[in-house]
Write a structure and sequence with these properties.
With about 850 residues, the chain is α+β, with helices and mostly antiparallel strands. It is about 40% helix and about 20% strand. The strands form 6 sheets. The protein has a 7-stranded mixed sheet with strand order 9-5-4-10-11-13-12. It has a 5-stranded antiparallel sheet with strand order 15-14-18-17-16, covered by helices on one side.
Amino acid sequence: SRAIGVVLSGTGSDGALGLKAIKAGGGITLAQDEETARYSGMPHAAVATGQVDLVLPPDGIAKELARIVRHPHLSPAVDRRKEPAALGAPEALQKIFFLLRQATGVDFSQYKQSTVERRIARRMIVHRLDSPGQYLKYLQKTPGEVLALFDDMLISVTGFFREPDTFDMLHERVLPEIFKDKGPESPIRIWVPGCATGEEPYSVAMALLEYMNQRGQHAPIQIFATDISETAIERARTGNYSDSIAGDVSEERLRRFFVRSGAGYQICKMVRDLCIFARQNVVKDPPFSNLDLLSCRNLLIYLGPSLQRRVIPTFHYALNPGGYLLLGRSETVGPFADLFSLIDREKKVPIYAKKMTATRLPPEMIRSEAVVVPEDFDRPVVARAVAQRDLERDVDRLLLRHYAPPGVIVNQDMEILHFRGQTGRFLEPASGAASLNLLKMARSGLAMDLRATIHEARKEHRSARKDGLHMAANGDSVTVNIEVHPLGEPHGDDTHFLVLFNEVVPTDAAPTGTPAKAAGKTAVRAEEAEVQRLRDELSQMKTTMQSIIEEHEATNEELRAANEEIQSANEELQSTNEELETAKEELQSSNEELTTLNVELENQNAEANRAIDDFNNLLRAVDIPVVLLDNELRIRRFTSPAVRQLNIRPADEGRPIGELKLGINVENLEEKTREVLRSLNTFKEDVPTKENRWYSLRIRPYRTADDRITGAVLALVDVTENRRVGEWLLAKSLAEGIVAAVRQPLLVLDAGLNVVMANKAFYRGFKANAGETEGRLVYELGDGQWDNPDLRRLLEEIIPRDAQFEGFEILHEFPRIGRKHFLLDARRLDQEKDLPSLILLGFSEIADA
């Protein structure tokens, strides 16, 4: 977190990954601006990653470095072990968390505090602020900084095939178990929460495809990839990555699963279609279910303990029985070893199998409602209220353990939902199939009275009580009082009952009189108590029987009414069945139509895919820079040559063309493009590049199939050679005109001393014609009069040595013109670049005295 990364002028994309790593660690990143960079490749690639904090000229970078190292939070005097406390008062942090929660719906107060506070301190350093109070005021005045802080909080550190031993274990142990019981139509369902920019779900998809290809197995695949950052999800959907992924992805996988896109790679359509991306907060949003595999790597390390206690049980609920959970190297399931087991304790690869425990309902998600806080924020922090509630809960637990009678909570079907206190003295498991039915678990002597008391409480919807019940417990007769309290709305479907058991402790009365009399009185008293008990039991039994009879009669009445309703419903069902038969025939007809329509749509889809493939192959095959713009002049697509000629990169998609520093010299490009969109005429102009080449810039409207204009097409055609040939032809025509106009005989020879052309004065003076002159070796003209060893030597040295000569004398008896005396002059003629040099040979006749 104390690192600072700077990328200066240079070619390629070096430094981009380094800045990304420094930013992930909480450091500061800077890059040189493209205006001052001699080579803008490296700064451009760094800025395109979105991981650069400041873009400055070199002198600005130097000043910023000097300021940053003097910042109080980077001072060596700060004890790093006490760094979070050095950030400021908790109240300031709570207010910052409130602003974040209000703007994004995400509560960072329960994330790992050290990471969160380092991120806030980093933003303070970037904006030259020394205290959290100053930064809080800056956040309140600058709404955009709240979103920037939110993006900074979400650390998207990921890569393809991270921790290769995890993928080896996935291939060897996990996937065979997942596919073992899967039919050909049963989908493989996978969830990747915290997917960042998509490398993890795409890696899992590639691993699945490789496994199925090796084993010859086939199954539908559904991969749900979610993240809290909409920006990361959008980038993951596009599937565009820089060429630096070649360090993590093998050449074979690059060929099979990627296509070359500009200066990087794009995930192929086959892999892309397997992944469904969506924004989701794993802490509070409902999870996916029926999953075979859940990969959540390096997300839990950023969550506080309370959030981990919510998230891990959610993962357990989301997985199928026998499903698997993948975590990062620094993560474990912590206190939830009862839910997951490590599949290989020797290798300690963090892959866990779901234990076959009772499936838990998903835990209550954290509510997203923001706490209402006044503008001045002058209220106690929420943590105090939470601590108060925890204290009250502990007190309730202590009172329940020592003073409250034991009891159970049952539903209307007498099923026990919750035990409170020690109920083992009154309830015991019944023999046979396991059951939590209260009446089956009640000890001997309680079942009938429990039924009657609950019936009374349900009927009157008020508390009911029965005292003096006798039951057998461990061979003894125990007296019990029971209470039943209804819970919930009267006569509702969700009415529950709290049943309390209170054991009556007998009190021994002191005997009076003589032992014999006392024993007699005790026996009489015991006999009377037994008679009274039997009378009470008989009375209670009569009451119970009466309630049962009333229940039975009420049930009979309900059954009669239900029977009449069933008969009426049966008649309606018969009528409905006839209607369904008619509807079935209509549905069969509609199904035929849908089948036909489906075939047509499949054909159209195939044609559309072929058209897309043709379009993509055409763009790759055409060696012409082409850029497609939308109506706002933002870049939509471009060909590979545009990367080289126009300095456009994959990360520039979506950026306005006016913001880019193109590799061509053209003025008012935006205005010219907008004029084309207004006039719908084609614009054409020759423009130069920095490498002294010329291109024909052509701007045309982008027309859709229904003749709508949705943008513009920029194309550059290399016309450098055409311009050179034109200039050469013009110069050649001019030279030929000059040569023809000269009255002195002239010959133009090539490097092999062949005659390229001769002027009219030559043909006139030597009585020759073009047929016997042009294209022939100069030594072969006439009767070989120019085949002179000295002349040959001089002519052959002109081009290699850039030599020339003047006044070379030739005296010869020419067959057609007689004896003549000539002086010969020769020099080299240089042409345009890439064209061979020529020799100009002139003849001057000397009159003999």
